[in-house]
Amino acid sequence: MDDGFLMEVCVDSVESAVNAERGGKARGPPAGVAGDGGPRRGRVVKQCVRIPVFVMIRPRGGDFLYSDREVEVMKADIRLAKLHGADGLVFGALTEDGRIDTELCTALLAVCRPLPVTFHRAFDMVHDPLVALETLISLGFERVLTSGCDSSALEGLSLIKRLAEQVMPSALYVTRGFFPPGGGITERNLQRILEGSTASEFHCSARSARDSGMKFRNPNVAMGASFSAPEYSIKVADVAKVRTLNAIAKNIL
User: Fold this and answer.
1) Which among 49, 111, 187, 197 has most CB atoms closer than 10 A?
2) What's the pLDDT at 83?
3) What does this protein do (predicted)?
4) Which helix (H) or strand (E) holds 12?
C-alpha cells in the first residue's frame, strides 16, 4: 500500500492473475466457484506472480447455506490452499434465515489460521447487515467484501458508508481497509465509490472479453445454461483497465 491504497482483482485464471500484476499493485483471489479447483489453480498462480494471492473457498455456486459434505470440501480446500502458499483466504457462510453461520465460520476460521481471512459477498445476502457486521467483527474476520447489499457498490454506497461509520471506532478501521467495496466497479464509477465510501481498498474484476483462438466452432451447442458466457469468448483481466483503475485511485487516495 505504498501509494495509499490497495486494489484487489478477482481472477479465475492464471492469465488474469498475471495481467493483474502487470497492470499494477493488486491482490487476486482465484475464484473457486462451483468447486472448479480454486486452491489447485492458486498453486500455479503463486508460481507465476509475486503479488499476494487470497484464495476463495467456494464448494459450489448458488446460495451460502452448506451441507456437511460441502463443509468437508471447504476444509480440505483451505488446507490445500495453505499447503500451496496462499497469502490469505476468502469465504462466507449463512444460516437458512439469512444470518452469519457463526458455528461454521468459527470452525473454518480455525482451519484458516494463521492466515488472514476475508468474508466475501455472502455478506450482501444477510437479513440485517448491521447485526451481521458486529458478528463478523466478534468472530475475527480481517475484512468484509461488500457491494452494500445492492446490485453494485455504487448503488449500495450509502450502506457501505454507514457500515464504515459503525466500525470506525474499532481498531479494525485504522487502515480504512475493513470494507473494500466490490461489485460493478469500473473506470466510470470508481472515483464516486472511493470518495463516497472513504475506502482505501477496492475489489474489481477489470475484465475484457477476448475472442477464442478456436477456428472450428459448433454453433449448435451451448456448454451450460443459456445465461452462461459464450464458449468462444473468454473474459480475462485487462492490463489497461487495471492500470486505469490504479491511476484513478492514486489520484484520489
Assistant:
1) 197
2) 94
3) May play a role in copper homeostasis. Can bind one Cu(1+) per subunit.
4) none
First-to-last C-alpha distance (Å) of the chain: 11
Contact, 36 vs 16, CB < 8 A?
no
Phi, psi dihedrals of residue 48, rounded to the nearest 5°: -105, -15
pTM of the model: 0.88
Query: pLDDT tens for residues 97-106?
Result: 999 999 999 9
Q: Which helix (H) or strand (E) holds 203?
A: strand 201-204
User: Does residue 150 surpass a pLDDT of 90?
Assistant: yes
Residue type, 61: G
Q: Which CATH number fits domain 6-252: 1.10.150.240, 3.40.50.2300, 2.60.40.10, 3.20.20.380?
A: 3.20.20.380
Three cell numbers written together for 21: 500484476
- Give me Rg for the CA atoms of the chain: 18
